[in-house]
Amino acid sequence: MLGNACLFHRIDDIYRCYDELMGVLDQFVERGMHCLLAVIPGKLTPEMASYIRRNGNFSVFQHGVLHANRGTPARRDEFPADIARETMTAELQGGKLRLEDMLGSRVEGYVPPWNFTSGPALQVLEGLGFRYLSAGNAVLPTALRTLPARVDTLASYRPVRVAPVEHVEKHLRKEVAARGTAGLLYHVKDIPPDEMPWLGNVIRRAAPLTVPPGLWPVFLESRSAA
Ligand SMILES: [Zn+2]
């Protein structure tokens, strides 16, 4: 059913419009490509919400609530196990409702800030009606269907280092060979503005293998729990 489509794109830390980000998002729109946006509900501006509402090829997963670290410097997590369950529930539900209200559609997926959250937080997400989780490597057992985004567009963040497009493609191929699918992760604010043509090249070359907007629901249902 999915044919060659085995890649998805996930852009993190979405909440406000700025030139570089809008340039990247517009490329997805112009190419008719699907893109998963990890949106921070507590910071989402009406301007960005309205842009997302206007463009049907984006899907939205909730990205924390305020994207604030309450874990440790070594294990950053907005909802570590020591936060009271009632607090977790109220905050995560508040974020979900705000997103749904501003976007005018249901939000059923979650991307934890720093790609990790605790076991109790995963249980709270299940209880709130979330069905999908896109995180990193360290996913704890959960009933949520998982779609990890393990391949980063940047080779390194400190210092920022861009890898040749061929390297990104090699990582994607390895991931597809191992797991059948791959997710490509973008933190646009960390990518130097003069590297935007390079990023455009990455997007263009990934286009033929990208899950199209119309097949996104099928792709989601093909994922299994962790
Ligand atoms: Zn983030």
Associated small molecules: zinc ion
Work out the count of structural domains. Answer: 1
- From the spread of the alpha carbons, the general shape counts as globular
In CATH, the topology is named TIM Barrel
| Low-confidence residue ranges | none
Task: Spell the H/E element sequence.
Answer: EHEHEHEHEEEEEHEHH
In total, the number of strands is: 10
Largest sheet properties: 5 strands, parallel
| CATH C-level | Alpha Beta
* Helix proportion range: 25-40%
**Number of helix segments?**
7
InterPro entries: Glyco_hydro/deAcase_b/a-brl
Protein name: Polysaccharide deacetylase
List the helices and strands and how they pair.
Elements: E1 7-14, H1 19-31, E2 35-39, H2 46-54, E3 58-62, H3 85-103, E4 109-110, H4 119-127, E5 132-133, E6 145-146, E7 151-152, E8 154-157, E9 160-162, H5 165-179, E10 182-186, H6 196-206, H7 216-222
Parallel strand pairs: 1-2, 1-10, 2-3, 4-5, 5-6, 7-10
Antiparallel strand pairs: 8-9
